[in-house]
Design a protein that fits this description.
Blueprint (H helix, E strand, L loop, with lengths): L2 E4 L2 E3 L2 E3 L4 E4 L5 E5 L6 H4 L8 H4 L3 H14 L6 H13 L4 H10 L6 H11 L2 H5 L2 E3 L9 E6 L2 E5 L6 H12 L3 E5 L7 H12 L4 H4 L1 E4 L6 H7 L7 E5 L2 H8 L7 E5 L3 E6 L7 H16 L11 E4 L5 H19 L14 H10 L6 E5 L6 E5 L15 E6 L4 H6 L4 E7 L1 H14 L3 E4 L18 H5 L1 E6 L3 H7 L4
Parallel strand pairs: 1-5, 8-9, 8-11, 9-10, 11-12, 13-14, 13-18, 14-17, 16-17, 18-19
Antiparallel strand pairs: 2-3, 2-10, 4-5, 6-7, 7-20, 15-16
């Protein structure tokens, strides 16, 4: 039975609940209705950037205190807004309920003062966020040049594969003292709005509340987007998403508008021959590989999909990689449910591809893939399956190779995370992989573990780019007069 869900919007501390525009969700059984934001565009957009002065009047400590109080309010066991977001995400997300619950229960930890301080200091620098930082200068007769990071007017077109994208966007917007319009995604339309509504409940007149909006509009609505993607109204667009979405947003670019893209990525895995050193080692590698494949039900760009294994391509090598494939499939089924479960909406087109491989047993061996449990496809040549870009729903392809160079040459600018075993191989190849385009190198099994969130992302530093970096110079008056005097 198809359900229709009401999704309000939040514009600068006001909650609008006059839902009268209906949209389809990512799944056929869910539709939702939202307020029409066209009549509210004037209040949504901040056409006078001087109105951000109230943000910059805040001390960094004020921001940390506000976020700490907000984090305390974002307890899913007590927060009705988050409970509604969780309930809707259980229907719209590619993640199953145990995984979603784990993420929602983790939200308050992101707002802890120590976490916010470390994140802000390492991603931008608290001193640059707080004031004008002197820089040594010889050109200007010893007078220092000063630099400060100011917030900007940003539109965030966020992804909805995990709710933590919305969480991170709110926190980054706050500590950079920026003005944010968050365009919510159809596979997670409520999480950002739930956080914004909690801010309104907690402190409706606070500058951080008034400088955050969370709204939904149908991508491609020219009436809305012509108004919003205008350099007189915004400074930057931070866009997550697929190829078509990024290409669409880029069509609005013009001088004065900066696009920061966190665009489509694919990740990979590289396993050296050391995996086969012993039976114990092979079981160990299989469990770690299952983590990289199955975490978040393989919904993330960080997840393993194509796995290059230096097993050899002769009969003995194929026997080795097939055993690894079997052990990995078994380990995948044993993962804790807060990390991974059988996929609740297994892609039928992918299922057809997997079924087709069963008729090519001389080229592929398939473990699983009979229902929604996921699958491990083992190639019998050194080439991935021709539908490698479509691997999802806990399905990975193990590819045997004789030489690690085959894997290195497969890396390009679309490669984000590479899980590597053993560590010595990671150290040996890290420079080469970086040249090729890889953006994150991790130990096998850690692809979906972000032990340190205060790091670059997708090969860039998006939070620094969210800021406007302003330079102030002081020059010696006599030096300037001398320059203007003819000798």
């Amino acid at each position: 039975m198809q359900a229709t869900v009401r999704v309000p919007v939040v514009i600068r501390g006001r909650v609008l609940e006059d839902c009268n525009v209906e949209f389809g969700g990512r799944h056929d059984d869910v539709r939702f209705v939202v307020p029409d934001i066209r009549p509210h565009l004037a209040s949504l957009l901040l056409r006078n950037p001087s109105q951000m002065a109230d943000l910059h009047a805040l001390r960094f400590d004020d921001i940390v205190d506000y976020l700490a109080r907000l984090g305390e309010q974002l307890d899913i066991h007590r927060n009705a807004h988050l409970q509604a977001a969780f309930a809707l995400s259980c229907r719209t997300s590619g993640l199953s309920a145990p995984i979603l619950r784990y993420f929602y229960e983790s939200i308050p930890a992101s707002f802890l003062p120590a976490v916010v301080r470390e994140t802000a200091d390492r991603l931008v620098g608290i001193d640059y966020l707080e004031g004008w930082v002197p820089q040594p200068s010889r050109v200007h007769s010893g007078e220092p040049t000063r630099i400060r990071a100011f917030g900007a007017r940003c539109v965030h077109v966020i992804a909805g594969n995990v709710p933590m994208v919305a969480v991170g966007t709110v926190i980054r917007n706050a500590f950079t003292r920026s003005d944010a319009i968050i365009k919510t995604p159809s596979n997670d339309p409520l999480t950002a709005i739930a956080i914004a509504r909690t801010m309104v409940d907690m402190a409706p007149d606070h500058p951080l509340t008034r400088h955050l909006s969370a709204v939904y509009w149908k991508g491609g609505d020219e009436v809305v987007e012509r108004e919003i993607y205008d350099p007189r109204a915004i400074d930057k667009i931070v866009a997550w998403g697929g190829f078509a979405g990024i290409k669409h947003v880029s069509g609005y670019l013009q001088p004065g508008l900066d696009l920061i893209t966190l665009d489509p990525k694919h990740s990979a895995t590289l396993i050296g021959p050391e995996a086969f050193a012993s039976d114990e080692s092979l079981h160990h590698v299989a469990k770690r590989l299952a983590l990289d494949i199955g975490a978040m039900n393989q919904e993330g760009c960080v997840n393993a999909r194509v796995v290059y294994v230096v097993s050899g391509t002769d009969d003995a090598g194929l026997g080795r990689i097939e055993r690894l494939g079997r052990l990995t499939f078994e380990a995948l089924q044993a993962l804790p449910e807060h990390l991974s479960t059988p996929h609740k909406a297994f892609d039928p087109a992918l299922k057809d591809e997997i079924d087709g491989l069963r008729y090519a047993s001389d080229e592929y061996v398939v473990f699983g893939g009979k229902r929604d449990e996921g699958a491990i496809i083992v190639s019998r040549t050194d080439a991935p399956v021709d539908f490698a870009r479509s691997l999802a729903c806990r399905v990975a392809n193990l590819v045997p190779i004789d030489d690690v160079e085959v894997a290195v040459r497969s890396v390009n600018a679309y490669t984000q995370t590479i899980g590597i075993f053993p560590e010595t191989l990671k150290i040996r190849l890290r420079d080469r992989l970086a040249y090729q385009g890889a953006q994150r190198l991790v130990s096998l099994g850690a692809a979906a573990i972000f032990e340190d969130a205060a790091t670059p992302q997708d090969g860039i530093e998006p939070v620094r780019r969210m800021c406007k970096w302003i330079v102030e110079q002081t020059s010696d008056a006599s030096m300037l007069e001398a320059l203007a005097t003819r000798t």
